[in-house]
């Protein structure tokens, strides 16, 4: 027991450490996790999760994949693909079918697999999956259309890849094994339909009970988590691998019921999903042996991987999207990005054993073939998605962007100063009259209530790394900060200091639920706008060898307010109470300064 606890501790620590290293180095998280898992497992032999966890290994991975897939499908709201339903539908149907057929042909003629094994592995390899796609989308800051297509394909096709593999295996048994009748194939189709019904019923049941207040707030997340596991386990008990379909349908059902608790549920599941992805990827890569790693360099396997990357994937996307409104550059990006992940590894490991037991000895190379494709696509796509999306004009600006909540003289002019330095900015406000300040300053704005449910479909928030709540209403600023804290994190969420009166306790509330307080902690909305009325200007001071940061501080007037440092790298540092900032040569400082 103590050894098992130690192994689980090491796996969890390595997973979270990998995510942290990826965040600090801005490397693709999947690449870091794969390398760490290989180092901990086959290279140095610190852990071997498959052997160490024994019978727990398979069920743990299966349930984790089910939860990850459910969390991803919670984002599949049909409103997101308004105007793109045709290309998305084509890719997840015709594209998936073409990928299966072409992948199976390549597995037979290039990798040298028998027809039976080739068609099973061809089904598995149509998947991309949220475990690898979603981290890459966050990293690359793709524009909404391309991101939505890749996300929908990754989540929707995931269960179908597993089902295609099961269908292929059942059909192969029917053709090659006399004792197996056509009834087995019919049973598979019925089990798949039943899994979809189970997922829809569980999803509708959750949404219905939440909307009618039958489940208290503190129990909503636990109820959802347990229900996901129930739907997955029940469907998987009826027929193996149909659990993935059940949880996907369940998530999509809840997402399109538009229930009020969906955002809280999504944040909770996203946190769990990140942890599970980290842990599972470490477990899978650390469980490989050195022979499997070395066999990846077999010529046939390498040729198969190259063919999947450069011929089959682009061909399936271009053929399936003929006659749609997708632009050529979008087809080019989607046709290149198709990393395989956890589902491909787990399902192929299962079928490798099943096929060998059924007498197909060539299935021994399935693990090597799958890991070669997973690792090859993760590396190729993880390192290229940012560069390619920028070249094609399908990613947002690489510089950190700022979203201002509240239009007034201060926010409009501050946004203009940032925009002049190349920083992507936008101002949101529910009042068209207040937005005249943004219009006069000639900065982008959105006439929308930031807290409305429609906002996430009206505005692409991907380019904006920082959110500044700068309205005159302290309670509203705090509410916005509390709402977006799970998405942005407190270090990227800012608001003006509270305009507290002596004897009240709003400042104590602020420390617990608000964003980070801006500037010196005493400059309020009123004083900032008064300064602008008094003729203060937004000054941009470049830091040079002859004009250092210390020189800037010495020249700062008593009434001047330093606001932000725009780094040469494109990042932004906002002045706030007791933060020891420093500016280097090439940086620019924005301050609200009294004119001479």
From TrEMBL:
UniProt keyword terms in alphabetical order: Antiport, Cell membrane, Ion transport, Membrane, Transmembrane, Transmembrane helix, Transport
Keyword Cell cycle included in the entry's annotation: no
Transport is among the record's keywords: yes
Location in the cell: Cell membrane
Record membrane topology: Multi-pass membrane protein
Primary site of residence: membrane
Pfam hit, one: Na_H_Exchanger
Membrane-traversing stretches: 6-23, 30-47, 59-76, 88-109, 115-137, 149-172, 184-206, 218-238, 244-262, 271-288, 333-353, 365-388
Stretches assigned to the Cation/H+ exchanger transmembrane domain: 18-390
Gene3D superfamilies listed in its UniProt record: 1.20.1530.20
InterPro entries: Cation/H_exchanger_TM (IPR006153), Na+/solute_symporter_sf (IPR038770)
PANTHER family, A to Z: NA(+)/H(+) ANTIPORTER 1, NA(+)_H(+) ANTIPORTER 2-RELATED
Protein name: NhaP-type Na+/H+ or K+/H+ antiporter
């Amino acid at each position: 027991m103590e050894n098992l606890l130690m192994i689980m501790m090491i796996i969890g620590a390595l997973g979270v450490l990998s995510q942290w290293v990826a965040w600090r180095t801005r490397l693709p998280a999947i690449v870091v996790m794969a390398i760490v898992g290989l180092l901990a497992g086959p290279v140095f032999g610190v852990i071997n999760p498959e052997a160490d966890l024994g019978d727990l290994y398979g069920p743990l991975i299966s349930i984790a994949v089910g939860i990850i897939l459910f969390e991803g499908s919670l984002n599949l709201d049909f409103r997101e693909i308004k105007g793109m339903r045709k290309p998305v539908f084509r890719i997840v149907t015709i594209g998936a079918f073409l990928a299966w057929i072409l992948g199976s042909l390549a597995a037979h003629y290039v990798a040298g697999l028998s027809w039976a094994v080739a068609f099973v592995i061809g089904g598995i390899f149509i998947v991309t999956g949220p475990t690898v796609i979603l981290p890459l989308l966050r990293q690359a800051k793709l524009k909404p259309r391309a991101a939505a297509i890749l996300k929908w394909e990754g989540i929707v096709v995931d269960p179908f890849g597993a089902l295609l593999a099961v269908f292929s295996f059942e059909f192969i048994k029917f053709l090659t094994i006399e004792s197996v009748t056509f009834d087995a194939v019919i049973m598979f189709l019925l089990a798949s339909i039943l899994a979809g019904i189970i997922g829809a019923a569980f999803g509708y049941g959750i949404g219905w009970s939440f909307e009618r207040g039958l489940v208290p707030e503190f129990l909503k997340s636990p109820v959802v988590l347990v229900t996901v596991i129930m739907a997955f386990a029940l469907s998987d008990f009826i027929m193996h691998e149909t659990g993935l379909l059940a949880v996907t349908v369940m998530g999509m059902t809840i997402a399109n019921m538009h229930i009020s608790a969906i955002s809280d549920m999504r944040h909770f599941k996203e946190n769990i999903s990140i942890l599970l992805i980290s842990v599972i990827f470490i477990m899978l890569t650390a469980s490989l042996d050195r022979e499997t790693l070395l066999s990846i360099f077999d010529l046939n396997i390498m040729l198969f991987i190259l063919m999947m990357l450069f011929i089959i994937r682009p061909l399936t996307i271009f053929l399936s999207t003929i006659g749609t409104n997708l632009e050529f550059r979008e087809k080019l990006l989607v046709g290149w990005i198709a990393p395989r992940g956890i589902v491909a590894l787990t399902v192929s490991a299962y079928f490798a054993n099943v096929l060998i037991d059924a007498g197909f000895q060539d299935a021994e190379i399935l693990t090597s073939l799958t890991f070669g494709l997973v690792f090859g696509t993760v590396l190729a796509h993880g390192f290229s998605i940012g560069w390619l999306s920028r070249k094609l004009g399908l990613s947002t600006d690489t510089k950190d962007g700022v979203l201002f909540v509240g239009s007034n003289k201060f926010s409009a002019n501050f946004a203009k100063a940032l925009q002049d330095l190349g920083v992507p900015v936008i101002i949101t406000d529910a009042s068209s009259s207040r937005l005249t300040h943004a219009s006069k300053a000639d900065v982008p704005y959105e006439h929308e209530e930031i807290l409305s449910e429609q906002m996430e479909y009206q505005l692409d928030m991907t380019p904006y790394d920082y959110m500044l709540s700068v309205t005159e209403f302290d309670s509203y600023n705090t509410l916005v900060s509390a709402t977006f804290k799970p998405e942005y994190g407190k270090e990227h969420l800012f608001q003006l200091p509270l305009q507290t009166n002596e004897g009240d306790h709003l400042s104590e509330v602020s420390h617990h639920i608000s964003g980070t307080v801006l500037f010196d902690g005493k400059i309020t909305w009123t004083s900032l706008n008064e300064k602008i009325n008094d003729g203060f200007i937004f000054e941009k001071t470049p830091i040079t060898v002859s004009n250092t940061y210390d020189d800037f501080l010495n020249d700062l007037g008593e009434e001047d307010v330093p606001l932000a440092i725009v780094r040469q790298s494109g990042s932004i540092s906002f002045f706030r109470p007791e933060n020891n900032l420093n500016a280097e040569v090439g940086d620019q400082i924005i301050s609200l300064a009294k004119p001479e």
